[in-house]
Each structure stands twice: as structure tokens, then as C-alpha cells.
Amino acid sequence: FTVFSQQARYSLANEMYAKQMIANGGKKLSKEQLKAITQFANSITGRGSLGKFEASSGVLNKLLFSARFIRSQADTFLMPFNQTVTPEIRAEATKHLVGTLGTIGAMIATASAFTEVETDPRSSNFGKMKVGDNTWIDLTAGLGSYIALATKQATGKTKSATSGKIKELNTGEYGSQTRQDVLFQWAQ
After folding, report:
1. Pairing state of beta strands 128-131 and 135-138?
2. How far is Cα 137 from Cα 125, in angstroms, rounded to an integer?
3. How far apart, in whole angstroms, are the C-alpha atoms of residue 173 and residue 110?
4. Strand partners, 131
5. Cβ 165 vs Cβ 159: under 8 Å
6. Measured between alpha carbons, how far is 138 from 45 in angstroms, rounded to an integer?
7. Which H or E run includes 5?
8. Most buried by CB count within 10 Å: which residue of 3, 22, 41, 184?
9. Alpha carbon separation from 126 to 58, 84, 168 (Å, rounded)
10. For every one of its 188 residues, what pLDDT tens digit does the chain have, with 9 covering 90 and above?
11. Rounded to an integer, what distance in angstroms lies between the CA atom of residue 41 and that of residue 93?
């Protein structure tokens, strides 16, 4: 697996380097361009940068299982808007995001024709298909949890994965969830 991942990173970075060289008219790439290519290739292949927390990666991995992978998944959604990378990398990241969301949408639509699939992004089961009585298979490769979190935060509503009931957040009623509760549960 490690060799495959490293080869994928190298191939992607090499391809992006060649594209940048053509876009630059054959001129040498700047340090910023090279850094952007590296950041994109690492993020796309599950090895996102922790930035100023890079030195703490060992501790973060113990707390979060795989901090760099979590960062790379977040980068799938954030890199198209990241002003610290070059416009060419933002364009590639946008193509990647659109392709990823299109693939996920196609998988959900196809699976929905054959079995139960949760399509409401307010549910923690969003993007998962039901197999048997209690087994859910994630069709989003983990990206559904980010979509569900963003939707719950934006709408102020959550859907129970067991009862299917829609509940308001931040009502102040005893036992009701807040946006912070949802964020904490997601982080867990």
C-alpha cells in the first residue's frame, strides 16, 4: 500500500508539473508553484498537510487516528477556494471536487435503484446504503460525514439515523442538541 501511495503521489505531481511547465511557457517554476503542486498531490492521495501542526502529527494521529487523511478529505472541499495555492491548482482541485461529487451522486443513484440509501444530508447515514438488517456501506469513502456536518450546521437541523425524525438544533429544550454537540459528535 505504501509503495502504491507514493507512486500515485509521484505520478500526480509529475503530471501537474508538466502541465505547469507548459502553462509557464517552459520557464522554471517558482517555489510557490512547486509547493502548490506538492500540496495538491499529497491531498489528493490522502496525505494532507497539517501546516503549523506538522510537528505535532504523532500526537494528532493518536487523537484523530489519521490527521493527514482527515486534512486531505477536508482539502477535497476546501482546496478549490484556497488562495495560498496557484490558480491552476485551484482549477485542478475544482475539477477533482466536481468529479468526486459526480461519482458519489452516480453511485448513490445507482444503489438507490436496488436497496435503501440515505440521501438526506442531515443524517449521519448520508451516502450509505443498507445491506441486510443492520449493515450500512459508505458510498462516499468518508466524505459524506463532511457533507452531513456542513448541512447540519447550515440548516440547524439533524435527522435521526434510527427513527428518521428531523430535529431542530439549539432549541434550548431539555435534551435537545446544539450545533456544538453535533460538531463534538462528528469529531468523536
Report:
1. antiparallel
2. 9
3. 40
4. 135
5. yes
6. 19
7. helix 2-23
8. 41
9. 31, 31, 18
10. 667 778 888 888 888 888 888 888 888 888 888 888 888 888 888 888 888 888 887 877 777 778 888 888 889 999 999 888 888 889 999 999 999 999 999 999 999 999 999 999 999 999 999 998 889 999 998 899 999 999 999 999 999 988 999 999 999 889 889 999 999 988 88
11. 10
C-alpha cell at 60: 494528532
| CA–CA gap between residue 167 and residue 179 (Å, rounded) | 12
Which secondary-structure segment (H or E) carries 130? strand 128-131
Q: Which amino acid is at 40?
A: F
92 — phi, psi (to 5°)?
A: -65, -40
The owner of cell 502529527 is: 57
Closest CA to 155 of 127, 179, 184, 186: 179
| Displacement of CA 98 from its chain's centroid (Å) | 12
